[in-house]
Amino acid sequence: MSRAGAILFILLPLQVFSASYGNELDQLIARIEARYGKMRGLAADFEQRYSRAGERERHERGRLFLQRPRRMRWEYEPRPGKLFIVNDREVWFYSPQDREATHADAAKVSDARFPFLFLLGQKNLRAEFREITFAQQDAGSQSGTRTLRLVPRRKDTGIRELYLEVTADGQIFRVKQIDDAGAVSEFTLTNVHENYNAPAESFEFKPPPGVNVRKQK
């Protein structure tokens, strides 16, 4: 075999692998966009883990409701427990145990739960993320799943990397976020009800009498 033939023999499998990798990635991204692009709402049970260097890991669970456009409700156990509510205008965090509520402008808040807002109505992931690849250690916890690594285009999101664990048909059931400080927030979704329409009042909050309200700037 000539030298040129040997080089071609080596490069050809790499080219085939690269094309196969690209096709599989593109197809999975397309399935995610098709699934969530027209979805109006979603309800699911969630488990949340938060870890940061020098701090004890936190583990919480509860019920999540998403609604287009930009509405979220997180109900934490035990119920009635903490609430985290987001709508187009404002963000509320309420702790009944502390008899305290925090109120903020939705445009000024960065939170680990906010990446969930991009799921509904998302029709172009590549417009939001400058890099989308399969994770290096792509071993899903369930058979047939893949894990995507996404890097935001914008640098003011506070997010360094986002990982989505996805089924073959494009359903996202685990989200892991690493922020600019290296803190890790991981959410696992179960009992998912797609196109669930929660009542409009679910995304509004009025502090109960006697609750101290703090304004976050």
CATH topology: outer membrane lipoprotein receptor (LolB), chain A
What is the CATH architecture annotation?
Clam
Put simply, the count of helices is 2
Strands, count: 12
What is the CATH superfamily label? Lipoprotein localisation LolA/LolB/LppX
Largest pleated sheet: 12 strands, mixed
Beta strand %: 35-45%
Can you characterise this structure?
With 217 residues, the protein is α+β, with helices and mostly antiparallel strands. The chain has a single domain (3-79, 111-195), classed as Lipoprotein localisation LolA/LolB/LppX (outer membrane lipoprotein receptor (LolB), chain A). It is 18% helix and 41% strand. Strands 7-8-9-10-11-1-2-3-4-5-6-12 form a twelve-stranded mixed beta sheet.
